[in-house]
Write a structure and sequence with these properties.
three-stranded mixed sheet; mainly alpha; 6 strands; 601 residues
Length: 601
């Protein structure tokens, strides 16, 4: 039992963590570069000037000619995807998921170059996307490239890819904790120190580097709200969560309805982004604030700077052009648009819900939309707090985000992120639980009544001994014991049959025929360890031996015995029983004074 521990991390984790810190710092520079690249293309497309200063497409003076800008940008992206790499299409996180699930966390070097360039062109030409998705993918690509230059396992490459992705988000939003949670909830598929420690350190390194490269946070400073806004406000947070969950579902359905519609078009997918660009251009004529990343718009929503009519137009236009253009397969992120639409929805709710301070409902709705759409509730809560540094918002955010998350979990099979992966033929489970094979030990499920063979008998004699006992055909592996009942090897039924049929082996004792390498497992090992041994030995049965004396045979475990752990899980999930009787809550003195108690059923 001394070999068992809470975690499986080794000293190699320190090496990976050191590399991850380097990846984190590089990701901060990548984030800064991409943000400046977006600013450059925005200035080029809308203001015909070469400048790295941040500017909003909403302030352009192109008039109706502005419709052509996103179309031109989409044409460039279509050509880059067709002749560069198709993997630049999409909003970043699903592509990172696919690299982890299907390609051993390997990202092509050209993706690391083309993804930020295509995203900058897309957003700079008015695309209603965020920079975080491309930065997550680009940061992940750099992490993967560094990992590919070193001799690492696929698991270690995954850790560095996710470290780069988390660092990219951390540097973009100055939200290191939310970036770590996003990595755990969406990309790692595990909660282990071997991956958590490097990813957390990479996120912290990126956040620290951001202070010197981009500037310190928060991204959206707000006045601090009351520590407790009231029971009526919390009740309205429940309603806010339901509304956000429903809106999240509509956004998810809209994106993939648009994608399905584009797939039915009789033209090559290279031209689809241009049609999405046309929708962006027309939407920009109606509501210029819907164009681009829109961090300034989010800030204005949090400060209650828009009228109700302007907010309704913003939500409708932003939602429409975002869904259509994202469905067309262009390049861009989803976080910033979700924040904007969530903030707009909350700003509308502020006119109905109780007053709780400037930007209160916009911030609550932002977190709820994020948690509901991306199915990442902890990320949604922490992200909203880190964006504003308002620690008093934790309680209302927990209520609203949890309700929104519950709503979408019960109404939608997949999130906006995993749906794209599923459409490519892969299933991603978002649930994390203790493996039943980790709970039970070999001694709990092994078979102790097994037949064994003496080492000095021949294969023919062994067959004549075991044949009468093989009515159920359950035992196929036979331990071979010496005169002192010590395990010296094993033989399968098929081996015994072949030896008995071979003239040169039929008369030889078993100890001369066996190779002395019996497939064994210790009785105090977990079933997960037993499965691991079976995989390594290419065996379906193992001999269980005493940990204190590995030559002492105790029993046998077969692959079908592993089902006992699964059966226990099924019973825990499905069997309903009442442990305590109802009269448990009745005081003892009542039972004594009431005549005829307890009554017979």
């Amino acid at each position: 039992m001394d070999e068992l521990a809470d975690f499986t991390a080794t000293r190699r984790m320190g090496l990976i963590a050191g590399i991850a810190i380097v990846v984190g710092v590089l990701a901060a520079f990548v984030a800064s570069f991409l943000l400046k690249l977006i600013a450059l293309f925005t200035n080029l497309f809308y203001f015909q000037r070469a400048s790295l200063d941040a500017s909003s497409p909403a302030t352009h003076h192109l008039g109706y000619a502005s419709v052509l800008v996103p179309i031109a940008g989409a044409l460039i992206i279509g050509l880059m995807a067709r002749y560069g790499s198709e993997r630049i299409r999409g909003h970043g996180i699903p592509e990172a998921l696919e690299a982890i699930l299907t390609r051993g966390s390997r990202v092509e070097p050209r993706v690391a170059l083309l993804k930020p360039l295509s995203s900058a062109i897309s957003i700079g030409s008015g695309g209603p996307f965020g920079a975080e998705g491309p930065i997550i993918m680009t940061g992940g690509a750099f992490g993967s490239l560094i990992a590919q230059l070193i001799s690492l396992t696929a698991a270690e490459r995954k850790t560095l890819l996710v470290a780069g992705a988390a660092a990219g988000m951390s540097a973009t939003f100055a939200a290191p904790v939310a970036a770590i949670l996003l990595a755990v909830e969406l990309l790692l598929f595990e909660w282990k120190p071997r991956s958590f420690v490097p990813v957390a350190l990479a996120s912290a390194a990126a956040a620290a580097a951001r202070v010197f490269i981009i500037g310190a946070g928060p991204l959206f400073p707000m006045p601090v709200h009351p520590a407790f806004a009231g029971v009526d406000v919390l009740a309205c947070c429940v309603a806010c969560g339901v509304i956000a969950g429903a809106f999240s579902g509509l956004l998810t359905l809209a994106v993939y309805a648009a994608e399905d519609a584009f797939k039915r078009l009789p033209i090559h997918w290279m031209w689809w982004p241009m049609l999405g660009g046309l929708a962006i251009g027309l939407g920009g004529l109606i509501c210029p604030q819907a164009l681009g990343v829109g961090y300034d718009v989010i800030g204005n929503l949090l400060s209650d700077s828009y009228t109700a009519k302007a907010i309704v137009v913003l939500v409708l236009v932003k939602g429409a052009i975002w869904s259509i253009s994202l469905g067309s397969g262009t390049s861009g992120g989803v976080l910033a648009p979700l924040l904007m639409m969530g903030g707009a929805l909350g700003a509308l709710e502020a006119a109905v819900f109780p007053g709780a301070g400037v930007g209160f409902w916009a911030l609550v709705s932002m977190g709820a939309i994020l948690g509901g759409t991306m199915r990442s509730p902890l990320t949604g809560i922490l992200f909203a707090v880190e964006l504003t540094h308002d620690m008093n918002m934790f309680l209302p955010l927990v209520v609203a985000v949890t309700v929104a998350h519950a709503f979408t979990v019960l109404t939608l099979r997949r999130s906006i992120l995993t749906e794209k992966v599923a459409r490519r033929g892969f299933h991603v489970s978002r649930e994390y639980a203790i493996d039943e094979l980790e709970i039970l030990f070999v001694r709990d499920v092994m078979e102790t009544k097994i037949a064994s063979l003496p080492a000095d008998i021949t294969s023919s004699e062994a067959l004549s001994t075991i044949e009468p006992q093989r009515d159920d055909r359950r035992q196929w592996l036979y331990p071979v014991l010496d005169d002192e009942a010590r395990l010296i090897g094993s033989a399968t039924y098929n081996q015994l049959t072949k030896w008995a049929a071979a003239p040169d082996k039929a008369g030889r004792p078993l100890h001369e025929l066996i190779d002395g390498r019996a497939p064994t497992v210790l009785t105090n090992e977990t079933l997960r360890a037993a499965v691991h041994h079976m995989s390594e030995m290419n065996a379906t049965r193992l001999l269980a031996v005493n940990p204190a004396d590995p030559s002492h045979l105790v029993g046998m475990i077969a692959l079908h015995d592993m089902l006992k752990a699964r059966a226990r899980h099924i019973e825990d999930e499905t069997r309903r029983e009442r442990i305590l009787p109802w009269d448990f809550i009745v005081p003892t003195w009542v039972k004594r004074v009431v005549p005829g108690y307890p009554r017979q059923p």
